[in-house]
Amino acid sequence: MRFGVHTPLQDTSVPGLRALWARIEAAGYDWISVWDHLGSLAGSTDTLEAVAMHAALACSTERVRCACLVYSVGYRSPLVLADAIATIDHLSDGRAVLRLGAGYLAREFEAMGGTLPPPGARSAQLAETAHAVRALLDGEEVTVHGRHVRLDRARCAPVPVQAHLPLFIGGGVERFPIPLDAAVADGWNVPMATADDARRKIAILRESEFAAGRPIGSVEASLSVGLCFDEAQIPQRFGERWPALRPAICAGSTQQVIDTVARYVDSGADRLVLSVRAPLDEALADELDRFAADVAPVFR
Q1: What is the pLDDT of residues 207-216, one digit of tens each?
Q2: Could you give the CA distance from residue 227 to residue 5 in angstroms, rounded to a whole number?
Q3: How far apart are CA 190 and CA 169, in angstroms?
Q4: Peptide bond before 279: cis, by omega within 30 degrees of 0?
Q5: Which H or E element spans position 65?
Q6: Alpha carbons 42 and 10: distance in angstroms, whole number
Q7: CA 92 – CA 64 distance, rounded (Å)
Q8: What is the pLDDT of residues 261-279, one digit of tens each?
Q9: Please, which residues bridge with residue 68 across strands?
Q10: Alpha carbons 263 and 28: distance in angstroms, whole number
């Protein structure tokens, strides 16, 4: 089992994030991600921009994989996104990871002057974008005249440092995008799933790999889960949605957290990404240190 940390960009600061990233890397985690939102999930608009902070993460670390969990395909052209990720790969000396998602927050689409497309349209756009971005990152010249993606002899240059920059697709819907992940992605991520839900979805992922003619286990199964040892702090940390999120939050004593992680291991997960919330303070950094020292070694 591999462990990473997902650091939100709401209600925080660049110095605060840089300090936390340094603590995470020093603690031995191998993955740090940011998010792609146009406003705070807490309801304010105090949120730093994803591509800029993904680049900052690349420049502020030396060892960890640098990701965004996930880029909404409705916010940027595939060519713009591919060029940005390739540049971030150069900034990080080959540590960038691209994660794509369909988007889901209506108010963000409305803030851009549009409306949230229906699920089918978002799924189709995710599929078209994933195929186009994969080809661009692999150095191909891409011409696409799709329903959602239109490119004319587009190229991503320079190409990434990595010969094959990892592409993950995020989402918990079982009809889609899991089959897409199995067809084109290097990894799949579902946010805040219970261990039982994760077990079912990972089984579908493995079946989809077989159907796509890929070796079983070739797509990394990644799960985002919460972390908050002090259960009394969960409402403050995770906001008004905390009751719905609680089953996917690792909380309680060290042994209770170990037991929760063990259930995710048994579900077939390859990686857990610990999703934390502001304030990104010393207490939170201490919790991440505690997890790295007392929980993670049990599963290595």
Answers
A1: 999 999 999 9
A2: 10
A3: 9
A4: yes
A5: strand 65-68
A6: 8
A7: 9
A8: 999 999 999 999 999 988 8
A9: 34
A10: 22
